[in-house]
Amino acid sequence: MAAPNETSLKADTYEDVIRIVEEVKLLPLSSFIPEHLSLESVTVHEQWHTGLVTDPWLWRDRLPGDGIAAYGRFFAKKPMLIHKSLFPLVKNVLEEPYSVDERYADGELSKAAVDVYHAIEAHEGIDVKQLRAVTGLSGKESKNEFDRALVDLQSTTDIVISGISERLNASGTKNGWNSTCYMTAAHWMELHGIAPNTLPTPEAKSQLKALLEAQFSEAANVYLRKIFKLK
Q1: Phi, psi values for residue 21, rounded to 5°
Q2: Using 50, 70 and 90 to split pLDDT, how confident is the model at 227?
Q3: Considering the entire predicted model, what is its pTM?
């Protein structure tokens, strides 16, 4: 089949990008998957960071907020949108069979990651500033540890980026940059009526492999089979 980025798909509006995510299923923000579309490739540079309704930087947070696509750094530490119809299958393949506490006990997760996860679980939709405060990781010396914890938890689909919160001053006027918010993936799915994929993992991998082969270019397939450890 033709590589997705060889098509004429373009996103000028939020409705356009919804259609594209529905079609391609996996939409990274940047073009790092070979021969595959990205939010960057389907938009024009002048659209970005304008603060307007046509700004893709705002779309990336609106999509998970509307329950259209899961958003997070699910692999390669790169931000990625995964359509709600595919996310349960991807989650099945990427998630660990053990809890965060069990993984911490086995030395597979840092204490910071466990603390971050439980804080998100206790405060679903928490913004990053509050999250750093409640976990005691707000100091400059903790930034790398905190950021690594977030990436580790997203890579196993324990958590997702759920949207943004606006920073307001005492009078209720917007003041400063928006803040990223996080939820557990399970809560995000439940919130938007998305059923989990309960296949045994080997069957889920077979299903994902078949889907990739049917919808993606060979170059994208080679890359993604390595990412998802598909034989």
Answers
A1: -60, -40
A2: very high
A3: 0.91
